[in-house]
Write a structure and sequence with these properties.
With about 425 residues, the protein is of the alpha+beta class. It has six helices and 25 strands. Strands 4-3-2-1-9-8-7-6-5 form a nine-stranded antiparallel β-sheet. Strand 19 (about 260-265) and strand 20 form a beta hairpin. The longest helix is centred in the C-terminal third of the chain and has 19 residues, at about 395-415.
């Protein structure tokens, strides 16, 4: 695949040195190149290096730096960028992670990606280089196989075989796609097929994914890397008829407990399902977390539904379970999530994501299997549908069908009033 991380760093530093020295003040103050950049994360330095590449654009907007990470059709804008001397710090917009780097010249900076969700010591080396370049180099020549279509996938760990559907769209060697599982999808993956090899990657500030596989006709065998050093094997066979469990059958209610909640919103006001605001209404209740990328996809969809049907009797509410059961930490994250997505509905802090905490606060669910999980409640107060996970926009047609299915349920329930 790509050149080893260490070789990239040495080559880039030599290139900067050969361009001639510039006064330090000028080099760091001014001229980080704008336009396309290429970043590589070294996700396993125990093996010399293992490169996870992605593309971003760097721009100056009204005197402020802005980084836009690109994964196929997704654009993630990071606008909290601080440059101090030769140091650069880039905070990701939704997730508690950041890049801490050193500027080496107008076209290069390097350092560490720190993901605080995994602890303060979770640090992944990176190098960023200005200029347009392929996400992955076509080192093995043109693609031998068109992998477009659906594949039956098995993600394998020591004690588990998780089924999934690989959804790929290939054109001229470039591949866009995702993996749909029974608890959600792996969102926007971007890469290539070169020769008999597949390479896909994605980075969103929380997740750093790298898929590699060898293609043999209608079969693939490969490795999935997630973040720093975590890995599992996977295999796939072309199978357009393969199906996963129905997302409406995975999560069930506990009949011994009524569906209810009572949690504070982002302003500190306690909201309850028994409030007049929700009585006689169709209620979409999402169980989510601000740390969850799939929850961003669903929040955008629910915002669309809310704006379209609120005047006809739809209410929407999101119950957020966060990494820490500490409102001084969680509330700023909820406010940021709500503001960046311009949510017109209530976002409530429900507590910690620890299983015992969730079970205590949501006793009406037999078990919470995925984030997001969405309950649709009729005007009579009865739960009509439970959707486990989401087929997000990275899954293409599946997302459109999932969205249509949920919207049709909402419309039917509104008509019953």
């Amino acid at each position: 695949m790509s050149r080893p991380f260490g070789a990239l760093l040495i080559a880039a530093l030599l290139w900067c040195a050969c361009t001639g020295p510039a006064p330090e003040e000028e080099a760091v103050k001014t001229r980080l190149a704008t336009g396309p950049w290429h970043m590589v994360l070294d996700i396993d330095s125990t093996r010399a290096s293992l490169d996870l590449p992605f593309r971003f654009d760097l721009d100056s907007v009204n005197g402020h730096w802005q980084m836009t990470v690109r994964n196929q059709d997704e654009a993630i804008v990071a606008d909290q960028i601080t440059i101090n001397g030769d140091s650069i710090r880039i905070r990701m917009p939704f997730f508690d992670s950041e890049f801490q780097g050193v500027i080496r010249g107008d076209t290069l900076f390097d350092g560490l990606w720190v993901n605080y969700y995994r602890g303060p010591d979770y640090r992944v080396p990176f190098i960023a280089m200005a200029g347009e370049r392929p996400r992955f180099p076509a080192t093995h020549g043109p693609a031998n196989t068109d992998i477009s279509g659906d594949w039956e996938v098995h993600l394998i760990t020591k004690d588990r075989d998780e089924p999934a559907i690989g959804i790929f769209r290939a054109e001229n060697g470039r591949v866009k796609g995702s993996f749909a599982t029974e608890t959600g999808d792996l969102r926007f993956l971007d890469g290539i097929v070169t020769g008999d090899s597949l390479f896909l990657s994605s980075f969103n500030g929380s997740q750093a994914y790298l898929f590699r596989a060898r293609i043999d006709g209608d079969r693939m065998d490969g490795e999935f890397r997630s973040g720093y050093r975590w890995k599992q094997t996977w295999n796939a066979v072309r199978n357009p008829d393969f199906k996963l469990a129905d997302d409406e059958t995975i999560t069930s209610l506990n009949p011994d407990h009524p569906v209810a909640f009572s949690f504070p919103d982002i302003h500190g006001t306690v909201r309850s399902l028994s409030d007049a605001q929700y009585q006689g209404k169709v209620v979409v209740m999402e169980i989510m977390g601000t740390w969850c990328p799939n929850c961003i996809d669903e929040a955008r969809m629910l915002r669309e539904f809310h704006e379209r049907y609120h005047g006809k009797g739809l209410e929407t509410v999101a119950l957020a379970f966060e990494y820490k059961d500490d409102s001084t930490v969680a509330m700023p994250a909820l406010r940021n999530f709500s503001k960046r997505l311009d949510l017109p509905y209530d976002l409530l802090f429900a507590g910690s994501i620890k299983r015992d905490s969730v079970a205590k606060r949501l006793p009406f669910l037999d078990k919470l299997n995925a984030y997001p999980t969405t309950l649709i409640i009729g005007r009579d107060g009865e739960v009509k549908r439970i959707h486990t996970g989401i087929y997000g926009p990275g899954t293409g047609e599946r997302y459109l069908r999932f969205k249509e299915r949920m919207e049709n349920t909402i419309v039917e329930l509104l008509r019953e009033g």
